[in-house]
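All the exercises in this workshop are built on plain-text protein records. A learned vocabulary of local backbone shapes supplies the integers on the structure line. Once this layout is familiar, the rest of the handout is easier to follow. An example says more than a description, so a record of this kind follows:
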Amino acid sequence: MSLFKQLGITEELMAKYSPLSQLSPKYLNQVMKHSKVMTFESGEVIFEKIHELPFVYYLLRGKLNARKSIISSSAIDAQTPECLFSINDKIPTGVSVKAQSDGHILMVDPKFLDRALAWSEADEKQPAPGQEARVKPRGDKSTSAKKSSTPARAATQVNHESELPAGEFDEEYFDWMTNLLEFPLFFNLPPVHIQTLFERFEQVCVAKDDVIIKEGDEGDYFYLLVEGRARVEIDEQPGKEIILSQGAYFGEEALVSETVRSATIIMEEDGVLARLDKDSFQSLLHDPIVNYISEKEFKEKLIDHPGKVEKLDIRSLAEFEYTPLPECLHIPLNELRDKIPTLDKSVTYCISEEGGQRGDIAAHILAQNSIDVFVIRS
């Protein structure tokens, strides 16, 4: 029996916690799969005074004591309403945390949660990933091409109707999409454009010893290694072997820097690639869809344009009430479209960074309605 089942940590339980409550069931399922459980016993020190918080922590059972000094401490009880939110803000560095009873904590990957929240919101406004256009992570090996200096002869644009019943979750596709978006150049892609990105990917079935890219050639595609392994060869470093495994990315450097290929990549075994042409790569990643500014730039805008700049918080009501932002207009993302007629189009709206990647969706909605908008990023 898994620890999750043993402790009764179910999707139904976690749907009570914020902002997990905003996730559609399929994304909540995936967030939990990417989470970990920390168990503790009474008297155990869980966090030393100097610590980092790499996860979003939810106290599901037990009591903790957060101590800042000998005379300053506070209790954290899983049974209280405030623990329906993460306890991160209660245990900053400089505060030691000791268990007052046995219990357990769910540790959620913050980047994955942020992305899932954005995808879940986008799901409500357009067909879900895997429903209409999908690049499946496993190619049809029957179409594997003959050896060549380029894999272009085996490319197929995948843009077909879903093989899944409406609403069913394609876990394999979701996992593959998640891996792709771990690549830094794709990480900030607005969720509302994810489907467009994947519609433009092509699948390529390749064979052992196929040359995928050749050193010195002009860059034409960005590649994702979906299946198989590939070998990297660099003329200036003979004898040095680098092996790329499933999930690796390559080819982006020449596209971004407008230079020639810096290495040769050869398949070590039969496999499947996903590739994105140069124009699509650059248009999706370099044509500004969402504009970003820093907190400092936002404050400068406030000074330079009094009365014409306003900060906007698009988090849920529960999140906003728990950690309100002073002097900030609050409109939950799921209400934003309905509230657009009430917004002053002469005002520039700067979306607070507390909303994470959901801010990108809000910016897209506002921009599509001819409203000047920026997303604040630190």
